[in-house]
Amino acid sequence: MTVISLQPLYPWQQVIYSSITQPFSQGRGHHALLFKTEAGLGSEVLIRHFAHWLLCQNKNGNEPCHQCKSCLLAQSGNHPDFHQLEPIENRDIGVDQVRDVLATLQRFAQQEGNVVVYIRQAERLTEASCNALLKTLEEPHEGVYFLLETDLQAPMMATIQSRCQTWVLHAPEMPIALQWLQMHCPQFSETDIETALRLCHGRPLICKTFLENDRLSARKTFLQTFWRFYKNRDPFLLLSQFEKEQVQMQLEWLQSFFSDALKAKMGMTTGWVNHDLDKGIWLFSDALSAQQLLKGYDILCETEKNINEINAVNIELMLANGLTRLVLEVF
Ligand SMILES: [Zn+2]
């Protein structure tokens, strides 16, 4: 059973949704669309909404009617012409999965309307899966639409990509995200939300979880400990504050502290991530040279990169190494 979400679009999706649907309304929609996106933007909601609209048999502008037989089937999570492909139990999307779906397409639409195949994490199609899919993408059946979703950074087989119309779904403009977060996290001040949003790279859904899990104050405590580590030159003070699942984010907090201090050093007072900690940043910036700040920033980036790439067996050791280097080479 494949459920097509009935969740409304997020405000930052309205404009791009109109652009995506427009050519279809004019009868010249592309049969294969590739959506490149990042986590935390709710792109799945947009794609499912679009799929629902494609299946609707009595479209109301660029919205589904919610009343026709197709819409009712979609709402019940039981639409026979909506197919979803994705990794199962974290295994790549195998060629058998692809062939199964393609075989059902041979029997044509069961509802006299369009057919939609939604492929999630399309970067995880194996080479054989891509090849199986390619033939269908090259000779499209009328009324059959492929919606592929992939991570913005992930490489995608060029032959597949060249047969798709690509849409890149970016993080929204700050004011739109801010307004939405203020509505959904009213207990936080505007300054806190702004800071959290910058720390979450402008991704509203990740930011919402971040705020709700009280990560903003966790970060404050963490950076206060960093300050003690800096003063005492004792790596173990900070080492004990790293949390297993949060290491990458915590390293990013430190990087942003260094880069803000560097900006302060250069007289730049805008574009800081940690505006709420400006007193500490000015102090830090006054105490260190630009060269030291840059060196510290590089060490932190290198540490993060090593942890990500070297399979993270010895995270503690790599962190200890990075922090010791800060003491010996920077402070
Ligand atoms: Zn409908």
TrEMBL record:
Keywords: DNA replication, DNA-directed DNA polymerase, Nucleotidyltransferase, Transferase. One of its GO terms (molecular function) is DNA-directed DNA polymerase activity. Pfam families: DNA_pol3_delta2 (PF13177), DNApol3-delta_C (PF09115). One of its GO terms (biological process) is DNA-templated DNA replication. Transmembrane segments: none annotated. The keyword Plastid does not apply. InterPro entries: DNA_pol3_clamp-load_cplx_C (IPR008921), DNA_pol_HolB (IPR004622), DNA_pol_III_delta_C (IPR015199), DNA_Rep/Repair_Clamp_Loader (IPR050238), P-loop_NTPase (IPR027417). This is DNA polymerase III subunit delta'. It comes from Haemophilus parahaemolyticus. The lineage of its organism: Bacteria, Pseudomonadati, Pseudomonadota, Gammaproteobacteria, Pasteurellales.
